[in-house]
Amino acid sequence: MSGNAGGADLDTLARVTGRVRANIEKVIEGKPDVVAAALVVMLAEGHLLIEDVPGVGKTQLSKALARSIDCSVRRIQFTPDLLPSDVTGVSVFNQDTREFEFRPGGVFANIVVGDEINRASPKTQSALLECMEERQVTVDNTTYLLDRPFMVIATQNPIEMEGTYALPEAQRDRFMARVSVGYPVEAAEIAMLDSHTDANPLDDLEPVTDAAEIGKLIDIVGQVHVSQAVQRYAVALTTATRRSPELHLGASPRATLHLVRAAKAVAALQGRDYVLPDDIHGLAQPVLAHRLLPSVEAAMGGRTSTAILEGIIGGVPVPEAGRA
Ligand SMILES: Nc1ncnc2c1ncn2[C@@H]1O[C@H](COP(=O)(O)OP(=O)(O)OP(=O)(O)O)[C@@H](O)[C@H]1O
Ligand SMILES: [Mg+2]
User: Fold this and answer.
1) pLDDT tens-digit profile of 251-263?
2) pLDDT (0 to 100) of residue 160
3) Residue 154: enclosing H or E segment and its boundaries?
4) pLDDT at position 1, please?
5) Would you kindly state where each structural domain of the chain is located, as residue ranges?
6) Which residue intervals define the domain ATPase AAA-3 in the entry (predicted)?
7) In testing the pocket of ligand 1, which one of 23, 59, 65, 205 has its CB within 8 Å of the most ligand atoms?
8) pTM of the model as a whole
9) CB atoms closer than 10 angstroms to residue 127
């Protein structure tokens, strides 16, 4: 935990992310928190799950982030008949050269927008698993490395909606954070009518940074200092989820790792070279809630993961703030 993210580095980070944020907000009205969450996940090298009802701008947000960065972007529309090889790629025999050639699938890009991910079959969903965690793809015993940065932004409708397959736990665990977008406030919705009725402003959105620059920002975030006290607090939170009688499945060590990585990005975005316990506290819901499964009794009593987690967070003392 080095802790030598310099002031100049943090200034660069603020400048570039400020540009990206402003760019996205040209096409997403009144949703600064969701835009900020997307930036945190990108800088922490995580993957983002956007879950909400139809028509609130999930696809719009994913595309706006992808367009803001000059890098390779691919969109995979998940449907029940999408095949695993559409995601990963396939070896095909070339008649002329008489050799097998690899045709890369949809994940070969810096930013992969996986739209309506829970409409694909579990088999196809799981094809994404190796790619997301290991940043590589194996087809016919050959392993192909994915580019850096590599970020999956997946959108899905809530699981109770028709025609969806719930994502398996292992796959949910690979998303650093889950956010919902929510309805815009009245003024923002009216602003949307002004700017969106005739044409979608997304079509005119220009990139304001590139993959190499984002790579540098990711390195800067990596330098942010995490104290022992902050580490212990993160572990105390995830441990508490594992001990909760209301939960059938608690948070994994991967979740703890994601919590701390995301907190480093939040700290850097606030111009700090060290993580505060409050950074962890503020991220506990978006980073942990989607990984938890309520026990049968809790579920029958109408308790959601979010509500149970709220109680758990409240029960773990937040340590004193400080750099050490
Ligand atoms: N907050 C917002 N600001 C600007 N435009 C918005 C906002 N919310 C929704 N829209 C507009 O509504 C339309 C639908 O958005 P989008 O396609 O992103 O929805 P979605 O959440 O992906 O829906 P679905 O679940 O059906 O795929 C787009 O034209 C988008 O510009
Ligand atoms: Mg959509």
Assistant:
1) 999 999 999 999 9
2) 65
3) strand 151-156
4) 45
5) 225-324
6) 47-176
7) 59
8) 0.91
9) 23
Please list every protein residue whose CB sits less than 6 Å from any atom of ligand 1.
28-31, 52, 54-60, 155, 157, 184, 188, 192, 196, 200
Tell me, what amino acid is at 245? P
224 and 273 Cβ atoms separated by less than 8 Å: yes
Structure tokens at 127: 């094809």
Query: Ligand 1: distance of its center to the CA of 60 in Å?
Result: 6
Which is the closest atom of ligand 1 to the Cα of 192? 4
- The CATH number of 225-324, from 3.30.70.360, 1.10.8.80, 1.10.1740.10, 1.10.10.10, is 1.10.8.80
User: Whole-angstrom Cα distance, residue 219 to residue 231?
Assistant: 20
Q: Are 229 and 324 in contact (CB under 8 A)?
A: yes
Considering only CA atoms, which residue is closest to atom 11 of ligand 1? 57
Q: pLDDT by residue (tens digit) across 255-289? A: 999 999 999 999 999 999 999 999 999 999 999 99
- Burial of 316: CB neighbours in 10 Å, binned 0-12, 13-18, 19+: middle
Instruction: For residues 114 and 154, give the distance between their C-alpha atoms in angstroms, rounded to a whole number.
Output: 4
Q: What is the pLDDT of residue 33?
A: 92
Those residues of the chain that have pLDDT short of 50 are 1-2
Q: What is the pLDDT of residue 4?
A: 66
Length of the chain as a residue count: 324
- Nearest atom in ligand 1 to the alpha carbon of residue 53 is 25
